[in-house]
Write a structure and sequence with these properties.
Family: Belongs to the D-isomer specific 2-hydroxyacid dehydrogenase family.
Shape: globular
Enzyme class: oxidoreductase
Oligomer: single chain
CATH class of the largest domain: Alpha Beta
CATH superfamily of the largest domain: NAD(P)-binding Rossmann-like Domain
Strand content: 15-25%
Order of helices and strands: EHEEEHEHHEHEEHEHEHEEH
Keywords: NAD, Oxidoreductase
Distance between the termini: 20 Å
Number of domains: 2
InterPro entries: D-isomer_2_OHA_DH_cat_dom, D-isomer_DH_CS, D-isomer_DH_NAD-bd, Dhydh_Halo, NAD(P)-bd_dom_sf
Number of helices: 9
CATH topology of the largest domain: Rossmann fold
CATH architecture of the largest domain: 3-Layer(aba) Sandwich
EC number: 1.1.1.-
Largest sheet: 7 strands, parallel
Helix content: 25-40%
Strand order of the largest sheet: 8-7-6-9-10-11-12
Length: 301
């Protein structure tokens, strides 16, 4: 099987790394033209991908891909769900620790060479604080077990109320306001769907504690951004860590840049130096399965 690594204007990693890894796994892999390939690893959608038998997205989220059009064109489409739990989980833990231990404020002062303590009542520990993880798929579960390991009381929100590791209680989406009401941290890990677009609106933000932080490692469109800015302006919540925004990149004129208690990162929570290997392992597995006539893993359509 010949797999093409489709070059992108802004790839997450050097495509040559993935070609090298796939080759080491016994998969014929190249970059270049789409001619005569059996599958494509895509960094983003391209109209030419409708002409190949199989497309694999390097991301878990696939809201930027026209899935129904792939289905109509007879293209098998797979994604990279399941590989981001550790990196995103650690990123979320880092955000929570940063706010709790006030590390962002000390970093800010370092630039000005200022030696000054935070007010006595600002720093806290994560132990026994509640975190509400909204979305308990593989991504959310990766977050939950790491926050649980830090001694936090972790609750979650998912469509089915079954418990998962690290979570003490599960709420259904209709009880979202109740779920976030007692949480010091509300962490968003849901996929972007019609149901989750604008999920965190003014009502949800109003239900949060005044000393609570919102952490978004999902998609920017899950949060009503104007409502978030208003909540931050009014002190209705303490702050936010935003790895996903709408639009991206965040415009220079956005007021979100100016809040001391907002951390903005460029949609990088999942990135790590072995990302290409995690993607490559999925691609190699599916290349072998498709060659053998078996159903690929992580099949979307």
């Amino acid at each position: 099987m010949h797999v093409l690594v489709h070059e992108s204007v802004a790839p997450v990693f050097d495509p040559a790394l993935l070609v090298e890894f796939l080759t080491s796994e016994g998969v014929t892999a190249t970059t270049g033209a789409l001619d005569d390939c059996d599958g494509v690893v895509a960094f983003d959608h391209d109209e030419a991908l409708f002409d190949v038998p199989w497309v694999h997205a390097i991301t878990a989220g696939y809201d930027d891909y026209p899935v129904e059009r792939y289905r109509e064109a007879g293209v098998t489409f797979t994604n990279s769900t399941g590989i981001h739990g550790a990196s995103v989980g650690e990123s979320v833990a880092g955000h929570c620790l940063t706010f709790a231990r006030r590390l962002h404020r000390y970093r800010d002062r370092q630039h000005d060479r200022v030696w000054e303590h935070e007010p006595y009542d600002r720093a806290f520990t994560l132990r026994d604080e509640r975190a509400c993880v909204v979305g308990l798929g593989t991504l959310g579960q990766g977050v939950a077990v790491r926050l649980d390991a830090l001694g936090m009381d972790v609750v979650g929100v998912r469509r089915t109320p079954a418990l998962v590791p690290g979570v003490s209680e599960v709420f259904t989406p209709d009880a979202l306001a109740e779920a976030v009401a007692d949480a010091r941290f509300v962490v968003l890990t849901v996929p972007l769907t019609e149901a989750t677009t604008g999920l965190v609106d003014a009502a949800v933000l109003d239900a949060m504690r005044e000393d609570a932080y919102l952490v978004n490692v999902a998609r920017g469109e899950v949060v009503e951004q104007d409502a978030l800015v208003a909540a931050l302006d009014e002190g209705a919540i303490a702050g936010a860590a935003l790895d996903a925004l709408d639009p991206e990149p965040l415009p220079e004129e956005s007021p979100l840049w100016g809040f001391e208690e907002v951390l903005v990162t460029p949609h990088c929570a999942a990135l790590t130096n072995d990302y290409h290997e995690a993607v490559g392992a999925l691609v190699a597995t599916n290349a072998r399965r498709i060659e053998q006539g078996d159903a690929p893993v992580n099949r979307v359509v």
